[in-house]
Design goal:
This protein is α+β, with helices and mostly antiparallel strands and about 200 residues long. Helices cover about 35% and strands about 20% of the residues. The strands form 3 sheets. A 4-stranded antiparallel beta sheet has the order 4-5-1-8, with helices on both faces. The chain starts with 18 loop residues before the first strand and ends with a helix. The protein has one domain (about 20-200): Transposase IS200-like (Alpha-Beta Plaits), CATH 3.30.70.
Amino acid sequence: MTGHRKSYRKANHDYSSPGFYFITLLVKDRNPVFGKLFLDRVELSEYGKIARSCLQSLEESFSFIKLDEFIIMPDHIHAIIQILEPHSPTRHHRKDLINQVLTMMSESSVVDIPTTMSESSIVSKDTPDKSWILMTRPEMHLGKVIRHYKAKTSFLIHKEGLKNFGWVSRYYDHIIRTEKSLYFIRKYIKENPIRHYYEKAA
């Protein structure tokens, strides 16, 4: 599951519908900026730690998702993101946070953060509370989560000094339809470091 991938959109699928989605994001030019591979693990660089932290904070920004298994590899990321049922107790509108972001945006400028995407994402300026919900459109779907993640990681990594960092503009996604598929994809993610290690050693 390596190589340059596109987002193979299923034409009639609603990407806001509940379920598990397997995603792969590639660093531009497959530059191994996130860390070094050591047999069955990846020793993360500072940039890799930013990528991990941003991934782990997605649930705080989007109440309609849950982060499942994931791995930060030197030049790509695998993750399973679950979109929750509409009536799940953890899926609710965080009105206080949304109001806070709207207030913040009305009081400060909005900047266009350039990314490797064909369509730039609009995010608020860096603030002490680090509120990063993309408020340009109200849709709650997988694509919005990915745009948010790419924009935030790009901004923070650029801020740390790696100005040429970027993502491959598109990403791979797979709709997980069965418990069996979910089990094997989780297994694939967990074993990704050791698999890549032996591929490189071969």
